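Hey L., structure's done. Input below.
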Amino acid sequence: TVTGVLNSSRQKVDYRNAELIERAIESYIFITEDAKLEYITYNADTIKNGDDSEKLILILQNKIICQKNGEELEPFLVPKDGNTPSVEYFTTQWENHKGYRIEIYPENMTCDVFPVEDILDAVININ
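Output:
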């Protein structure tokens, strides 16, 4: 059915966006060696365990200051068509997905990002 195809396409968009977000986070971690996201700041805003994942998604679309060394970094997650950064560009498309969960694994310097069906699960978890 058309509805089934449309829903399948929307799910794929959500997983593709999750991959983009994941790559952006891992690039930041690799370049800065800030595996716990302790030094990432934007407009004096920092990331804490349990924060809403949209906060990090927005920060990654802006120039970032790494407080570890004071270095200013270009955006790791580029808004569509070079527009002004907004979480709207990376919101989930499929009606059952309510946001993204971000799992950070500092020991491995990696992360996993995946769509979730409960908005309460759309958080940053630093393991």
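The helical segments are 2-32, 53-59. The chain has one domain: 2-126.

-- N.
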